[in-house]
Design goal:
Length: 344
């Protein structure tokens, strides 16, 4: 039986003049023919505008904040070059990514190294170039300290990554007991390390849980300072959503989509999708986070940061790449299956 597609919910992309100009130029068809395969077109002006908007959110609240581009979001060298030119940081997760960032002009001090189970080679490079390392486990902390030569003038810069209490099965971060042990090891390491604060990796895009956990890290910083550690920065990772479509289209899609719309009758709940529409996206999501009142606190998260003298680091990927390009695919073939088409 043929399946009608005329009443299927659609997700139209939000309009963007720069993208529309590229799509209407006729150039994409020519490039697709020339390359004989998929390719990207990139719009660096959009990246720069997204970066300015995030920085403006910090400036408006008086919060000391730094933006690091999460390199894993897109491998194009262009974004690293934009970071170098604008003084933005870069979040890297491998020795190759670290070397590429350095090669495109980003200073080592402007790099943060994330990801679990970092190998000694990556840790050594990070220390030699003064990069900040988000330490994920006790053995990783020991390995990092071991890379610092005796009498070195440059210590290992690090953040201790906290395991989110509400996500105890996350593969990222240390629990409360491990954090206490890590703090003690940083104290015993002396001048070999500079413990600059704490970080976390939190799944999902909800604002309030991120504000609550970030406020907890501020408290950890204050406790660590009493012990004699620097602890003046926290990192909230990424998690700033991007809106790709409008609210009505998104809610209509969620309410009307069903297994008849998918190959082989697969079914998906509303929670199985990336939130393609967000009431507060990109820089507005950062503003909402700074304005949120963390649980157990009377004022805003921004006020808490300023009162404690703690700087905020964020490592967005999608939020910096919003409307900054697209990927072009040529349709290689079409198959008919039970009244619908499979495109390759």
């Amino acid at each position: 039986m043929a399946v009608s597609t005329t009443d299927w919910p659609t997700l139209p992309a939000l309009p963007d003049p720069a993208t529309a100009a590229v799509l209407g130029s006729g150039l994409l068809e020519e490039l697709s023919y020339a390359f004989s395969g998929p390719f990207h077109f990139l719009l660096p002006d959009a990246f720069d505008a997204n970066l300015r908007a995030l920085r403006a959110a910090f400036d408006e609240t008086g919060v000391d904040g730094t933006v690091y581009f999460a390199k894993k979001a897109n491998k194009a060298a262009l974004w690293i070059e934009r970071c170098a030119l604008t003084g933005a940081g870069v979040d890297v997760a491998s020795a190759g990514e670290l070397r590429e960032a350095l090669g495109h002009g980003v200073r080592g001090e402007d790099l943060v190294v994330t990801g679990p189970a970092k190998d000694p080679g990556l840790l050594g490079l990070a220390v030699r170039h003064g990069a900040l390392v988000a330490v994920d486990a006790l053995d990783e902390l020991d390995a990092l300290v071991a890379t610092v030569p005796s009498g070195a003038r440059r210590p290992a810069r690090l953040l201790l990554r906290c395991l989110p209490p509400d996500q105890p099965h996350s593969r990222f971060g240390m629990n409360e007991a491990e954090l206490a042990a890590a703090t003690d090891r940083c104290l015993r390491a002396g001048d070999a390390v500079r413990m600059e604060g704490f970080s976390f990796h939190l799944s999902g895009y909800a604002i309030q849980p991120r504000a609550d956990l970030a406020a907890h890290l501020v408290g950890l910083c204050l406790k660590a300072r009493v012990q004699g550690l620097e602890a003046g920065r926290i990192s909230i990772g990424g998690g700033l959503p991007v809106s790709y479509t409008d609210a009505d289209s998104w809610h209509t899609f969620l309410s009307e989509q069903n297994s008849g719309h998918y190959h082989a009758g697969k079914s998906f709940g509303s929670g199985d999708f990336y939130p393609y529409f967000a009431p507060a996206a990109g820089a507005d999501a950062l503003r909402a986070l700074l304005a949120a009142r963390p649980e157990g606190h009377d004022g805003s998260f921004a006020g808490l940061l300023k009162e404690a003298g703690v700087a905020l680091l964020t490592e967005p990927g999608r939020a910096l790449l919003d409307r900054a390009g697209a990927t072009v695919f040529r349709v290689q073939g079409v198959k008919e299956r039970d009244g619908y088409r499979l495109l390759t």
